[in-house]
Amino acid sequence: MKRPFFAVLGGMGTLATESYIRLVNRATHAHCDQDYLDYIVFNDSSVPDRTAYILGESDENPFPVLADDIEKATAMGASFIVLTCNTAHYFYDDFQALTTVPILHMPRGAVARMAQRYPKDRFPRVGFLGTVGSRKSGVYKRAVEEAGYTFVEPTDELQARITSLIYDDVKGSGELNLERYESVLRDMLDPAGPCACDTLILGCTELSVLNEAFPLPQLPVIDAQAVLVEDTVARAEALRA
């Protein structure tokens, strides 16, 4: 009997997809080859830059490329689909309209986990770290505010540093720097600083790569990709039961 499998829409970027797959395998309750989950990865590195399109800096639309991947995953019989790019959730409703196969929603999952771990009466101000495209899309802002929190955007100076971490360090050189990464988190959490956040959401999978390399459990941070990993494994293992 064929076991259920899920499809991963990746390649945005490839290192982030690699991190997601590695964490899924690590989180799976496996003791032999056959215990691991069944999945297919579309590492579609040809997907145009999502932020550039959302900001009107490029006419290359990522939607048709990802829509084609969704149609392929549906035709292959995937039980659910994982979209491993926060910024691409700008198109989420249109993606889901293409298929009856459920597509996991990473931002909503992250906010739900934040509400469990950091209740709004004690952690009311939520800082968002991600691409400018994700900020403009409003996907996280809506989810955070609907949950009853105050959504805090970084200052222009902090956003420039976040963008550099994403595009220069992870996507570009691949050289990860703990000091550069941690300083951004601490500056956003500084109660005397301009953001004065109580908790943070890492809403870009390149930042999740940094979080995997440099975990800082002492800081009140929700990593959207880490939550997606947990949700993926829970759903996939439930399908086997």
From TrEMBL:
One of its GO terms (molecular function) is aspartate racemase activity. The keyword Isomerase applies. The keyword Endoplasmic reticulum does not apply. It comes from the Bacteria. Keywords: Isomerase. Gene3D superfamilies: 3.40.50.1860. Signal peptide: none annotated. It is an enzyme of class 5 (isomerase). Its EC number is 5.1.1.-, 5.1.1.13. NCBIfam families: asp_race (TIGR00035). Belongs to the aspartate/glutamate racemases family. This is Amino acid racemase. It comes from Bifidobacterium adolescentis. The gene is racD.
